Amino acid sequence: MTTAGFVVTHAADADFQRGLRAFFEYRDLGVEAATGGQVVAHVIRAVPGAGFAARPHRHATQFQLVYVLKGWIEFEYEGQGVVRLLAGSCVYQPPGIRHLERGHSDDVEMLEVVMPADFGTEEVATVEPVAASAESPA
User: Fold this and answer.
1) Residue 25 and which of 13, 53, 83, 131 are 20 to 30 A apart at CA?
2) Is 12 helix (H, G, I), strand (E, B) or coil?
């Protein structure tokens, strides 16, 4: 048995930082360092009073799971339409699925687990797929 990579974090020691989206704060749970970059896990919460602006996008992931701890968040997903997630809701977002956040409560808090830790994000023209030439610059 090995203990390499074992990590524990506590809410009392939480350090939230601004991250991918300016209207959210992210609490790193130490999983990225523990797994050598294979996986990232963080708690995400709304920044009170922050302006909300979202664009359709997709992530270059192998795995992405979001579990809502508190409040609500609403996404529009490629081929699925609008999905409202409430406290206790969980969504697995398949690799590359186009999506757009439609809104969230001021108190939303989520656990997100993504693989790999250093995943890319690409803005797209729309949630629904379009011809490749329509998204490419002329």
Assistant:
1) 83
2) helix
pLDDT tens, position by position, 75-97: 999 999 999 999 999 999 999 99
35-127: CATH topology is: Jelly Rolls (2.60.120)
pTM of the model: 0.87
User: Which pLDDT band, with edges at 50, 70 and 90, does 132 fall under?
Assistant: low
- CA gap 1, 81 in Å, rounded: 45
Dist CA 91 CA 78 (whole Å): 14
- Cα–Cα distances (Å) from 63 to 22, 30, 91, 93, 97, in that order, read 23, 18, 11, 7, 11
Q: How many CA atoms lie within 13 A of 11 on its CB side?
A: 4
